[in-house]
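Sample A.
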Amino acid sequence: MNHKEIKEKLFKDEIVKKEYDSLKPIYDLTQEIIRLRIENDLTQKQLAQLIGTKQSAISRIENGSYNPSIEFIEKIASAFNKKLIIKFE
């Protein structure tokens, strides 16, 4: 069984699908932070220094074990000269 087949089987359970969907925003945010950091040729430590935190905080965000505050995300956005936009759809 491949990944796609397993995912399809699991998503037949509405509870599993709902939980998976609820994690999408944080997953997307994590991927965007990693993408920006790599595009800007920064290590986790360098990004941490730019925003005044420790490398371990960046690592926890990137590995999904920490859900950062909006203020923390704004600091990251600022380090990349980006504007944080949050919206409801």
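Sample B.
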Amino acid sequence: MLVFKKGCLFVKIIILTACSILFLGSCMKNTDYTPVSKTGFAFDTVVTITVYDKEKSTVLDACFDMCETYEKLFSATREDSDVWKINHSGGAPVAVSFETASLIQAALFWCSQSDGALDLTLLPVAKEWHIKEQMTQVSENPDYEYYIPDASTLDELLAHVNYKSVVIYDEKGTVVAYDETLSKETSYRVQLLDSNAAIDLGFLAKGYIADRLKEFMISEGIESGVISLGGNILLIGEKPDGSAYQIGIQKPFGNAGEIIDTVKETDTSVVSSGCYERYFREPESGRIYHHIFDTATGAPVQNNLLGVTIICDSSLQGDALSTYCYILGLEEGMKLVQSLDGVQAVFVTKDYEVIK
């Protein structure tokens, strides 16, 4: 039983998987189906990739090379990344890779689809709250007093939160639409029309990368495998014995490895978002301040949910929908999922009721 954390959404997901050699019938090809895994650290979280084919273990090294490449492009804190250059350009257009343009376009699409409930320009607000840093502070100093930004400070920052200020241009200087197909043969530039704005692609990056890793692994002949980018779980095929992978969903605020529900799935993505991983609790009121922010107020979302898990084909879509459904709350989140084909959801309410 393996426990992983979801990077910027920081939600634990447990993969329950057999770790013994699978003895298959004589009709199967002569392959050693012992699961082989590699674990490392990228995107500010633990990454584990598993293949059920010992002969193809070298694919794991290539996958981690890809992770390093993507981190160099997408990190908002790594100097000289594409995102860092955009945020420090003073509003000037910045040449970016095809991959960065593709991810920014996907982010803009979901920002538009959510009517701005998701917004890639929320970085200044998140920095003001510095949830992760405050968690570290209190772990080192029990007397540390949490900082809660006042409404006027958040209003000033929200004046620069607007996904429509992010523009992608092709090599001819034409604005690229959110739903336009990009070409690897074309060069792209990205501009922040508001020089005080800044972007962060963390709410979609792991989903995008997981999808690219799965494409690569399948092209290398991997038929069974598990990709975990800090909790974005993406399944390749089924287990070699034909059974489904069993995935446990972490109980909010429970002990490590304590699950509240399980799902059995094959060849799909499972992504969770919630308030119970990166947060602090105000001592007097008991109110929880976490990392998923309301773009209308700049404060952490407060509703009737502890977490949302999305099951669908695309890990990027799962990333977007898990956060968006959490922001919407139970009733509106359920309506959204019911309107979509090929999407399932597990909602966990504040009363620990599990609604599928």
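B remarks: The chain has a mean pLDDT of 91. The domain at 82-202 is CATH 1.10.3980.10 (T-fold).
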